Amino acid sequence: MDYSRFTDGNAVNWYESDFTMKRYVQRYLSPTLQKWGEDQLAHMGAYAAGPMDERARHTDREGAPKLLRYDRLGNEINEVWYNEGYRATVAEGFRSGVVGWRYRKDVPEPVPFFFTQLLHMLMSGAETGFTCPVTLTMAVAFVIEKFGSEEQKAKYLPRLAAMEPENLLQGATFLTEIEGGSDVGAIQTRAVKDGDRWLLTGEKWFASNCDADLSITLARVSDVPGTKGLGLFLMPRILENGVKNRIAIRRLKDKLGVRAVASGELELREAEAELIGEPEKGFKYMAEALNISRMCTATGSLAMSRRAFLEAAIHTFRRSAFGNTLKDYPMVQQTLLDMMTDIEAGWALAAQMMLGMDRCHTEGQETVEEITRLRLLLSMAKYRLSENSVLHAKQALELFGGNGYIEEFVTPRLLRDAQVSTVWEGPSNIMALEVLKILAREAAHGSGESILFTEMKKTLSEVDRPELVDVAQCIEQERKELFLDTRYLLSADERVQNAHARTLMDKLTDVYTGIQLLKEAQVDLAESKDERLARIAEYYVDRTFRPNVHSIRSKSIPVDDLFEQVVCGFQEAPIH
Ligand SMILES: Cc1cc2nc3c(=O)[nH]c(=O)nc-3n(C[C@H](O)[C@H](O)[C@H](O)COP(=O)(O)OP(=O)(O)OC[C@H]3O[C@@H](n4cnc5c(N)ncnc54)[C@H](O)[C@@H]3O)c2cc1C
């Protein structure tokens, strides 16, 4: 692909030009859903690259939401003002079915998360501020779908899933308090039963989409300390009698990025709410909401990496310095090659996460093993892809030179938006501890090895193409080392575990992702004799596990071999 044909990322359709996404559509969506959904993806690819991105720029710079706490007579109204463009983005975004398709009957077959996440990704390339409310609405719907009473499902699900803006209820998830976000057990907000409703009193320190129509809110129902005493509540903004619920928005956060979403501090003053499920199971229910938001953070981050790559590729194919086009310098090629390798590896990991989500929650195979595997994958993907998106946004910014630092270009916004992904929905350290906790639980329950290790061993044993055997052997060695490291760490004391949790997380994610890349590469070799993914898998393994292959004295320059095929080896995308 000759990226110099485009003026910038807005000149291409983000679906039509993303051959990695298209490959995964063909591989993992049923033919029926491909036929039904491809036009929708192409439409969103054009829309996100066009009007949505233009509005996102405006919202970020001039049109951020504003708190209207009082009306002109001094009455407390607690409303949030949004600019017109953002409102249009909200309407079009939800109209796409990104939340709704899962709950609709007028579809050819049940629509998996795998499809709605593609819509989410296309939007995330433009406006992660908006995809936050999308994610939160999806999470609230999912919790009601799984744990709500029949009455709650009938009352709320059709409206959370509505694709017409006039019927839509937007969702939000309120956990974090000033005492702690990761430490959910520190929550102080209290819930007191009052007839058949509950009254919630306390403060929420971070509340994104703070004026949402319906939130799920954690509050303490008993004096049992920690997460055990927490219940989960549905808290509407407007009560059934049309009066506003007693929720004050103290102020909006002045944030580094994702400025389109109103993240506020809330005061709940005996706010009315209804309980979901059983009183002391709130944390368990909220964990399912977190699974949705971690999945969306992971895929949204991958989309930001893709945007960073696209902008960087276009710029470096057009800009000259010292008499050469930037893209002809090996150092520049190396950065683009690394970005693309990370994106392909990210897809191999994210695909397993999305498929795992569907296996458990769309296809009804919610076994203990599948749930365990899914939780591991969600943490790994959220961790790896969010960290990568920050790196890629920074790399794109640098490749733009001075312009990259200037707000008229997308790179500063990308970097600012990407940075939140490593923090919200569980910071990176917490993701690493989560993985360790799950592995420990598996070990304690007597399963000889983690389900992920069994899967890795099996997948590797099925890699038999001669082109991949050497690479597979290298990963197998790493897998064995990883197994020993894991066993050691699980038997170590808490301090040692904490010290090494992130190293283990990195290693586990590196090895698992490499194996998935090999699996995908083998499919391409077998089905279309396409070697591109095999070359990427080999480079990924060399870069990660045997850096000497490309050391200075190795006399090998990886881009000489790989740049054309990996970075440019696609058919031309149409100008949009
Ligand atoms: C823009 C934005 C929007 C948000 N929106 C919402 C929302 O809508 N709803 C909501 O409930 N929350 C929201 N949050 C809160 C967010 O989820 C929390 O900030 C996040 O979970 C981290 O919690 P914390 O801020 O209390 O940090 P802490 O938990 O205090 O963590 C601080 C640092 O310490 C590290 N750390 C903590 N414990 C350990 C440990 N045991 N070992 C090693 N390291 C550790 C963490 O990794 C982190 O790096 C939002 C945050 C932001 C920035």
TrEMBL record:
All copies of domain Acyl-CoA dehydrogenase/oxidase C-terminal, residue ranges: 281-437
InterPro entries cross-referenced by the UniProt entry: Acyl-CoA_dehydrogenase-like (IPR052904), Acyl-CoA_DH_CS (IPR006089), Acyl-CoA_Oxase/DH_mid-dom (IPR006091), AcylCo_DH-like_C (IPR036250), AcylCo_DH/oxidase_C (IPR009075), AcylCoA_DH/oxidase_NM_dom_sf (IPR009100), AidB_N (IPR041504)
PROSITE patterns: ACYL_COA_DH_2
GO molecular function: acyl-CoA dehydrogenase activity
Domain spans labelled Acyl-CoA oxidase/dehydrogenase middle: 172-269
Residue span(s) of domain Adaptive response protein AidB N-terminal: 11-162
Alphabetized UniProt keyword annotations: FAD, Flavoprotein, Oxidoreductase
Database matches in Pfam families: Acyl-CoA_dh_1 (PF00441), Acyl-CoA_dh_M (PF02770), AidB_N (PF18158)
Cofactor(s) this protein cannot do without: FAD
Protein family (similarity comment): Belongs to the acyl-CoA dehydrogenase family.
Protein name from the UniProt record: Acyl-CoA dehydrogenase
Taxonomic source organism: Marininema mesophilum
